[in-house]
């Protein structure tokens, strides 16, 4: 959890995540608008995931934290 907690700030809200990989993911939105996602890829091959119009490829059998910065005007 240290990997993900370094991106989660006091007052962050839990996000409701849907989709095929949602059972292997949790996310928080920080008070400043940034979003931190922690994803687990349990498969023995790389897995592509998409969130907020962005995509990333998770390494096989890995845990990855993605940080989405607050967009200007949002």
Q: Residue share in helices?
A: under 10%
Anisotropy-based shape: globular
Which class of secondary structure composition applies to the elements? mainly beta
Helix count from the secondary structure assignment: 1
Number of DSSP strands? 6
Measured between the Cα atoms of the first and last residue, the distance is: 28 Å
- Low-confidence spans: none
Give the strand order of the largest sheet, numbering strands 1, 2, ... along the chain: 1-2-3-6
Instruction: Indicate the radius of gyration in whole angstroms.
Output: 12 Å
What does the main sheet amount to?
4 strands, antiparallel
Query: Kindly state the mean pLDDT as a whole number?
Result: 87
Query: What order do the helices and strands follow?
Result: HEEEEEE
Describe this structure in words.
This protein has 74 residues and is mainly beta. The chain is 5% helix and 42% strand. The protein has one helix and six strands, in the order H-E-E-E-E-E-E. It has a four-stranded antiparallel beta sheet with strand order 1-2-3-6, with no helix packed on it. Strand 4 and strand 5 form a beta hairpin. The longest helix has 4 residues. The model has no long low-confidence stretch (mean pLDDT 87).
Keyword list:
mainly beta; two-stranded antiparallel sheet; 1 helix
Topology at a glance:
Blueprint: H1 2-5, E1 13-14, E2 25-29, E3 35-41, E4 47-51, E5 54-58, E6 62-68
Antiparallel strand pairs: 1-2, 2-3, 3-6, 4-5
In short:
Helix content is 5%, strand content 42%.
């Amino acid at each position: 959890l240290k990997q993900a907690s370094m991106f989660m700030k006091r007052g962050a809200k839990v996000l409701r995540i849907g989709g095929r990989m949602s059972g292997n993911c949790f996310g928080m939105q920080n008070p400043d608008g940034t979003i931190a996602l922690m994803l687990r890829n349990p498969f023995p091959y790389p897995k592509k995931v998409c969130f907020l119009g962005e995509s990333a490829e998770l390494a096989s059998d890995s845990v990855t934290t993605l940080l989405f910065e607050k967009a200007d005007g949002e």
